[in-house]
Amino acid sequence: MFELQTELLINVRNYVTVCNPKALQNTKDALHNIMAKKRDVLYDVGDAALEVDTFQDEIINAILKVEKFLKPHLKK
Predict the structure, then answer these.
(1) Which residue in 11, 62, 16, 63 sits closest to 41, CA to CA?
(2) Is residue 70 predicted with pLDDT exceeding 80?
(3) CA distances (Å), 44 to each of 4, 27, 53, in order?
(4) How far apart are CA 20 and CA 26, in angstroms?
(5) For residue 54, which phi and psi values (nearest 5 degrees)?
(6) Helix (H, G, I), strand (E, B) or coil at 74
(7) DSSP 27-67
(8) Terminal-to-terminal C-alpha distance of the chain
(9) What tens digit of pLDDT does each residue of 22-65 get?
(10) pLDDT tens, 11-24?
(11) What's this model's pTM, rounded to 2 decimal places?
């Protein structure tokens, strides 16, 4: 789960940097190249319907594992 959190954090940070008008163009270009080589975990709701969302599936599976582990230890 921590790997998925890190992947999301890096993608958000890169996206924000690319959108920052004060960021250097060389930095933006480098980040565009990096982002093009990695899977897309940031998208609009409309985009989500067009393709399989493996990142979301991985997040859900990780959360289910945590829930399965914690459930016997929680009182109802």
Answers:
(1) 11
(2) yes
(3) 19, 24, 12
(4) 13
(5) -70, -30
(6) coil
(7) HHHHHHHHHHHS------HHHHTTS--HHHHHHHHHHHHHH
(8) 26
(9) 999 999 999 999 988 888 887 665 555 556 678 888 888 999 99
(10) 899 999 999 999 99
(11) 0.67
